[in-house]
Design goal:
TIM Barrel, CBS-domain, alpha/beta, 8-stranded parallel β-barrel
Length: 516
């Protein structure tokens, strides 16, 4: 499909459109006068419930970005304490998109991308195993140290003998007894071959009675790894061109064109031109170059291009003109971003999304290319995700939200588990500037921080808590009668659907916990 871009003949034409859209959104807007507009954050608004026959289980959260289809409307932010190979694999399994941050060494970024693209969903490659001579005491050690309650037993040639389900073994009373006495032998297990497709694996695990695990055994009987029902149940792997979906961040440097091309050759699905100020010539020109590369070789790659961040209608329009598939909106909204505080620039997220939505609707009415909107900043919980989507965003990009995952880079580096504190920092924080992780976004001369550092509590593996959050998000759509995100967008445009909260109303929405 050929994109029909909006092209302005002059600056006056652009200004006319900006005034028209602003007047449509804000009837009291008076061009040429300094009258601050009432703009609101996601915390200042709430949705009104509607009669609904849509059950949470009926909701479909899938969404498209260009030629890309995701099962969940979430992207991980390209941050150096967050998005690496482990989080990319976890996000892919759950149908989300992980944007691998632009490591200063291109080969590191490419290696992480390769690991995700070569990843088999939900497959545990090297689980802890027991030998034929091991006892239940050895099994208890594995259970205590690694929390593995299902442990394969193999012989000296790595051939599978059986599986010990520790819940069925009297570990304390029979510590000296051999594992082989308590394990389920191979003849009583259902096994599969290494080449089996994930769809078949998942179907067997969910349909076979008493089948909670599927060991993978090759033609010689050698144990290769296994699948667990609890992992496969929430899995909705996101693929593009037959490969696991993964994105990569690039900068405005000329050499990053080569980096983007290499990523496309590897199979990257999303290219993100990432900047704190997307409404500037370097970002717009870089986006234009990458879009043209992909359009030229669309049959080979068909990847989507995302650019940002912007906080104005003008910024959205300029990126739409060059043909990006999505625009990231939000400046200064992030939980660890201090840009608005220290520079005075920023627009509250709810109003910013609404302004860009009205602009997008105008482009659609004119038959022009209209990029989708990605809410980026301050997306810290499921309620904010629902409100951002209802406001008109198609996707939400989050940092702090995903920093709580056990697969985040900082959690992996520190070995954090559920309940532990995980280090988390903004890409313009003093630490990122010191380590020059911020140089690609802000320039090597950057000295003054526009972000902070801190800690978040680890919630454990992403797959252990996303199903609950997904249920809450689906519940939000169910409350207003939306079965899809497209339905939610229509409902978000209806009269009386939004409530503006007073300070007392916001306090009422907050969680209050009685402390002893």
């Amino acid at each position: 499909m050929i994109k029909k871009f909006l092209q302005f003949q002059s600056q006056e034409e652009r200004e006319w459109l900006l005034r028209k859209i602003m007047k449509d959104i804000y009837p009291n807007f008076q061009p040429g006068r300094c009258n601050p507009l009432p703009r609101y954050s996601l915390d200042e608004v709430a949705l009104t419930d509607r009669y609904s026959e849509v059950a949470p289980s009926d909701v479909d959260l899938s969404v498209s970005c260009g030629n890309i289809r995701l099962a969940a409307p979430l992207l991980t932010a390209p941050m150096d304490t967050l998005s690496g190979s482990e989080l990319g694999q976890a996000a892919f399994e759950l149908g989300m998109g992980c944007i691998i941050y632009r490591h200063k060494k291109a080969e590191v970024q490419f290696e992480w991308i390769k690991q995700i693209i070569n990843h088999s969903p939900c497959f545990v490659h090297q689980p802890k195993t027991l030998g034929s001579a091991d006892t239940l005491e050895d099994a208890a050690d594995i259970l205590q140290k690694y929390h593995y309650s299902t442990i394969p037993a193999v012989n000296a040639d790595k051939k599978l003998l059986g599986i010990l389900f520790t819940k069925n073994a009297a570990l304390k009373e029979n510590v000296s007894e051999p594992v082989t006495k308590w394990m389920t032998p191979l003849k009583d297990l259902i096994t599969i071959k290494p080449a089996e497709k994930f769809e078949i694996v998942r179907k067997r695990l969910l349909s076979e009675r008493g089948c909670s695990v599927l060991p993978v055994v090759d033609d010689n009987g050698v144990f290769c790894g296994m699948y667990f029902r609890k992992d496969c149940r929430p899995a909705k792997p996101a693929y593009h061109n037959g490969k696991p979906l993964v994105g990569m961040a690039v900068s405005v440097n000329p050499e990053d064109i080569k980096r983007a091309k290499k990523g496309l050759e590897l199979g990257v699905s999303l290219i993100v031109i990432d900047s704190s100020h997307g409404n500037c010539p370097p970002v717009i020109e870089q986006a234009d170059k990458i879009v043209k590369i992909i359009v030229t070789i669309a049959e080979l790659y068909g990847a989507a291009v995302i650019a940002g961040n912007v906080a104005s209608i003008d910024g959205y329009l300029r990126l739409a003109e060059v043909g990006v598939d999505a625009v990231k909106v939000g400046i200064g909204s992030g939980s660890i971003c201090t840009t608005s505080l220290v520079t005075g620039v920023g627009v509250p997220m709810f109003s910013l999304i609404r302004e860009c939505v009205c602009t997008r609707e105008y482009l659609i009415s004119e038959g022009k290319h209209a990029p989708i909107i990605i809410a980026d900043g301050g997306i810290n919980n499921t309620g904010q995700i629902v409100k951002a989507l209802a406001a008109g965003a198609h996707l939400c990009m989050a940092g702090k939200y995903f920093a709580a995952a056990q697969e985040s880079l900082a959690a992996v580096d520190s070995g954090a588990r559920a309940g532990d504190l995980v280090y988390y920092r903004g890409m313009a924080s003093r630490g990122a500037i010191r380590d020059r992780s911020a140089s690609f976004r802000y320039g090597t001369g950057k000295q003054a921080p526009e972000g902070v550092e801190g800690f978040v509590e680890c919630r454990g593996p992403l797959k252990s808590w996303w199903p609950q959050d997904e249920e809450l998000i689906c519940g939000g759509l169910s409350h207003v009668g939306a079965a899809t995100i497209e339905d939610l967008h229509k409902i978000g445009n209806e009269p009386y659907i939004w409530s503006l909260l007073s300070s007392a109303g916001q306090r009422q929405m907050e969680t209050r916990v009685l402390r002893e």
